[in-house]
Amino acid sequence: MAIQFNFVSSMLILVLLSISSVEGQGGGGGGIIDVVAKFGAKADEKTDLSKLLLDAWKEACASTSPSKIVIPKGIYFLSTDTLDGPCKAPIELQVQGTVKVPADPGAFKKPKWISFNRIENFKLSGGGVFDGQGTTAYKMEGCKGHDYCGSLPIEESKVKLSNISFKNIHGTSARPEAVKIICSATLPCENVELVDIEITHSGSTGPAVSQCSNVKPKVSGKQNPAACSAPIPAKPTPTA
Question: pLDDT tens-digit profile of 114-134?
């Protein structure tokens, strides 16, 4: 089932910067862990889901049989979470509702929103929405050298990424750069797969485009925008 992202470009970058080894076909069967029914999560847009989601993840990660973590329909507030492996069995995170990031970028203490580390056989599903409050972040793109950067954590990834699948990603992007897969020149991404990507640009500045650097993904199914078809603009030379 497809996942819809309101903040598609940053979510794709976030996943690539945070996952060391992920396969989209893991999980299935096993125990179901409902964050509302079992941990008392509230879909009220103000109660932080972070600790409860982390508790659910720890339980699933310790299980020796496949587990499915379910975030039911509703709108949830999530400040930040780091979901670590390695885990003992496949895990599926099924997002049925909407998970929203803090509207204030200064609320971030680390340069990540949701981070998945050192996991294999992981599946993200559910038809839900990750709302990254993108219109706020876009205003601060390329902020180095500006006063407001002091409130934003910035960190370059030093993780080797391989065996990553993005499948059935549907949604909209407020920016034309709907998909960005930006990998390190010294640690290029390997074995990246894009399957059935359908992302449209909701603005008026042109169609959605896809940009890639230091990665040659394997593509199949529908690709809108065409995978890695747009050049990446050169960064401007800093001035004193």
Answer: 887 888 888 888 878 888 766
